[in-house]
Amino acid sequence: MTPPVSKPRPGPMRLPDALQYRLPLAAKVSILHRASGLLMFLLLPFIVWLFDTSISSEISYDSFTSAFVAGIGFVPAWAVKLVVLALIWALLHHLIAGVRHVWMDATHSVSKAQGHNSAVFTLASSVLLTVALGAKLFGLY
Question: What is the pTM of this model?
């Protein structure tokens, strides 16, 4: 009887090793879901400021609208619009991916094909809605 051959333990994973993996689209959507939640959390003070200046008074509403035309202090208006566009994407993606997760939990849809199809829908719809709202934000229509 021959003893079993043991393989040597792999060493620690390095970044080049980790970059060789190809994640499925559903995994990328899950990572983006977490990233969008983190982005919304980190920009929460900006969101509170936007909300506060938009509803406090007529004068503060004018300063709110001028932030999109003249900027805020040393920050130009296009940078404010880009931050708001990032918030729009984060909200839309987080909302749609969250509904996707709830739907998959409620219907017990855990097949690989269904996960891929719902991931494609999540990415496509969040990007299309972000482009549409971004075009409105930047004054294209």
Answer: 0.81
